[in-house]
Amino acid sequence: MPFVLWSLLLAAVLPLIWAGVSKAGTRYDNHKPREVAARAEGYRQRAGWAQQNAWEALPTWTAAVVAAWLMKVPEAAMNAAAAVFVLARVAHGLLYIANQASLRSLAWLVGMLAVLYLFLRAGGLIG
């Protein structure tokens, strides 16, 4: 299976990883998970925010992959974009947790450029 399809699974797992970071090492009440998250501070709070952002990025990436797949964008191009997207999203989460706002925004932009690239290739606007 091409890496671009595996990237969909990786992108779906990232929010779960960031959620784990936000909850690790703290008292957690599964009866009131949102209250626990609302009281989080520091890196745990930022990990929660990284989780939310990762969920928000997933549908856009999925749509880009589907469009590229349906329009028969070359597999190598899709795989390259997928590698860029996955690495950018991992960096985004790590930089969010590390409180590196400017670098985090750069990582977000790189991920979105991978999305844009797939859509442009799917639309035949770039070769």
Low-confidence stretches: none
Structural class: mainly alpha
Q: What's the helix-strand series?
A: HHHHH
Shape summary: elongated
Strand content: under 5%
Whole-number mean pLDDT? 96
Secondary structure: helix percent: over 70%
What gyration radius follows from the Cα positions, in whole Å? 16 Å
- Give the distance, in angstroms, between the N- and C-terminal Cα atoms: 24 Å
Tally of DSSP β-strands: 0
Described by strand count, sense and barrel closure, the largest sheet is: none
Instruction: Specify the number of helices.
Output: 5
Describe the structure.
- With 127 residues, the protein is mainly alpha-helical.
- The protein is built from five helices and no strands.
- The radius of gyration is 16 Å and the shape is elongated.
